[in-house]
Amino acid sequence: MNDIDAWVWWLVGAAALGIPLVVTAMPEFGMFAVGAVAASVVSALGLGAVVQVLTFVVVSVALIAVVRPIANRHSRQRPQLATGVDALKGKQAVVLERVDASGGRIKLAGEVWSARALDTGRAYEAGEEVDVVEIEGATAIVM
């Protein structure tokens, strides 16, 4: 196998590493593929097999060591924009029908919701403003 063939084989290896990246969604395979592309470039420059393998290993390990912790840190962060019922927590609502521990009605975000008081000994009368603490199913828990 001559040097020209070696760089082609590295590119074939990079493409082969791209397949499990797509199938398994494991980014490590992409980092190995980038290492194979780097080794292909080194091979195309005419450097020997030992340098090619070292380039593959160093680039792949460096990418895993640098990119993986950053990706893990980003995957653990909560999204900045709350959506759905999460966006309703902390909003203010107006009591339409008396709200106590057994139930009632509020107007929240332009819609009528069933509501229940968080404090079982407290009742809110029509017209009062309340804060939404939690959403349980289709019922807003207010205080």
Automatic annotation (TrEMBL):
Segments crossing the lipid bilayer: 6-23, 53-71
Topology of the protein relative to the lipid bilayer: Multi-pass membrane protein
The protein's name: NfeD family protein
Transmembrane among keywords: yes
Domain NfeD-like C-terminal: 85-142
Keywords of this entry: Membrane, Transmembrane, Transmembrane helix
Location within or outside the cell: Membrane
Domain of life: Bacteria
Protein's organism: Streptomyces tropicalis
Gene3D superfamilies xref list: Nucleic acid-binding proteins
